Amino acid sequence: MKLDENTSAHTHDDCCSTKPDEHGKHNGHTHNHRHDHSHDHDHDHDHDHGDHSHGTDGDAGILKSRWMLWLSLAILAVFLILTYIAKIELPRVAEISMMLVAYVLAGNKTVALAFRKASRGDFFNEFTLMTIATFGAFYIGEFSEGVAVMIFYEIGELFQDIAVSRSKRSIKALLDIRPDTVTVLRDDKPLQVTPDEVRIGEKILVKAGEKVALDGEMVSESGIFNTAALTGEPKPQIIEKGQRALAGMISIEKSVEIEVKALFKDSKLSRILEMVQEASARKAPTQLLISRLARVYTPTVFLLALLIVVIPALFVADYNFDQWLYRGMVFLVIACPCALTISIPLGYFGGIGLASRNGILVKGANFLDVITKIDTVVSDKTGTLTKGVFKVQKIETSIAKDDFMRIAASLESYSTHPVAKAVVAAADATALTKPLDVEEIAGHGLKGTVDGKAVLAGNTKLLDKHLIKYPAELASLVETLVVVAIDNSYAGYFLIADEIKEDAATAVAELKTLGISTIMLSGDKEAVVGKVAGELGIAQSHGGLLPEDKVRIVQELKDQGKRIAFVGDGVNDAPVIALADAGIAMGALGSDATIETADIVIQNDQPSRIAAAVKIGKITKSVVYQNISLAMGVKIAVMVLGAGGVATLWEAVFADVGVALLAILNAYRIQGKKI
Predict the structure, then answer these.
(1) Is the Cβ–Cβ distance between 301 and 332 less than 8 Å?
(2) Is 380 a catalytic residue?
(3) pLDDT at 231 (0 to 100)
(4) Between 364 and 518, where is the model more confident?
(5) Are 125 and 168 in contact (CB under 8 A)?
(6) pLDDT digits over 178-205, tens only?
(7) Is the per-residue pLDDT at 344 higher than 70?
(8) Were 195 and a residue from 89, 213, 447, 523 both cysteine, which residue would form a disulfide, CB within 3.0 to 4.6 Å?
């Protein structure tokens, strides 16, 4: 599924709308790219924006579609040059004719929609505001100013459309990286098909430089892949035979074969794209607040403008209706909160895009706000702060190390247990010999013969069972041990442990600098959990927990007033992720249930991205509040000047459009931030 054109597109109903709750459901460009300016579906105040999907062609399409606006601007420019530069006094009829033509070209759809909405009882919207202001200018004979108000209003909307279109395309270009065709091997012959025609279990061929189209398992011995689009990690990743390769990765060295393990629609990339699409519909509290205020703000503005026109008649001795009507119109023009209602969602959309470029999927603007309020990160251990892969950390033996590893690994190669696999992985696979008379003793380990020698490999209980003595200090080791005896004599041990992720300690330290404490919860034994917590600098940890225990602890923390983000990867973490204020999932190795439940997904499984998500949320929130302060400050100042007769319609429209453009540019800054 492609990223839909509905993703965070802009409509004029974003400004001063009396139906803010509907915006999240109906906003956007329809598939024929017509620009709907109303939530009502039986009419269309639209601009044909052309195709927004391909680089600058989208901007060109928008600009070309506004040819009537450009013609209107040209007519106004000619009139102003003749009148104020050439000092040619045009006949009144010629002036009125030129201005009416320019006005109809620029504002015909805005005026039509204003009347259409008014006929349905919806008077308090920007279309009615602009129509009243410009009609009032015509009434008092200020034709050029009335036309200018409409032209610059439409130019402001044009810049907003371009800004939103570019923001939408930046995320779409970043994530929509699935190829249109894939080479599938059928009857040992390569066949070009669309990705959704490939079935689970089939093998696909990915050539050097091509993108993987579907999730699968490496059949070739190994391959080097660029995973930046999925994870934000520029360093190439080596994927060995049997390991997972995901849609969106790019083979950068050679052709590889991959066995498909998920349908096209079920690939992680497809689901990421769906989540990004849904994210733009989830409004942040700041956006919802502005929408609620619009219900009160817009009618209040109309009332104040009316009072500016009417009240002075009771107190001003030389009251002039046209003069006060002009002031009321200035007040109306500058009062339109378009800068707020477009720059705020644009700011949050920029934050979502910045997060995506850093390997973080934020499922909604509201979660960018939530993450800034977090004071405690509760984290799972295995697969979150550690790699979730058993690995030999230490080998102690009284015989030659190579012989010890070869004998033990030969016996362990019989087992599929993760601990046994760790022992085998540590040895030279080419040196292994086939074990004989292998017997698996449940809960203890393996017994067999290797090179004619009787070998035991398992836990200390296995040696106890066979009355073989071993060093007493082994009992004090908290990690998993594989103890080995050869010919009824203790020979040594393998210390097996989960490996801590390279950036886990950095992640904890960065969170601490942000004023966020970290707590670790795990189902692993308490001694192991405590050891890992100590290495990472985590002050509070709990081990031996069941999923319901994690839920209980997080609920207790919330009852204490803590704002919790829970980070996990396993399916057993889904309930507690749902409970937390912000649920964060490790996306590369995480279970589907956990990723679906989470509010934020770390696509490269790096714990340090948690702090990055917090920083992105803070940057976004800062820019949004800057825009609110800028827009409201300038508007209040010019409204006061307009009501006092100091500001003209020209100044009002320049202030309105100027503030909107500054707010848009400020929102754009988010996308260029380095985290």
Answers:
(1) yes
(2) yes
(3) 53
(4) 518
(5) no
(6) 567 888 998 888 888 888 888 899 999 9
(7) yes
(8) 213
- Adjacency order of strands within the sheet including 564-568: 360-362, 600-602, 582-586, 564-568, 376-380, 517-521, 540-542
What are the tokens at 461? 């209980």
CA pair distance 399, 603, nearest whole angstrom: 44
pLDDT of residue 592: 60
Contact between residue 86 and residue 154 where contact means Cβ atoms under 8 Å apart: no
Starting from the edge strand earliest in sequence, which strands make up the sheet with 256-260, in order? 189-193, 182-186, 203-206, 256-260, 216-218, 244-245
Q: Kindly state the DSSP code that residue 588 receives in the 8-state scheme.
A: T
Q: Provide the pLDDT confidence category of residue 169 given band limits of 50, 70 and 90.
A: low
Residue type for 28, please? G
CA distance 370 to 511: 16
**Percent of the chain as helix, strand, coil, to the nearest 5:** 50, 15, 30
* Radius of gyration for the alpha carbons in the chain, expressed in angstroms and rounded: 33
Higher pLDDT, residue 585 or 259: 259
Contact 630, 661 (CB under 8 A): no
Averaged pLDDT for residues 370-391: 87
For 459-523, the DSSP string reads -HHHHHHTT----GGGGG--SEEEEEEETTEEEEEEEEEEEEPTTHHHHHHHHHHTT-EEEEE-S
What distance in Å separates the CA atoms of residue 621 and residue 614, rounded to the nearest whole number? 11
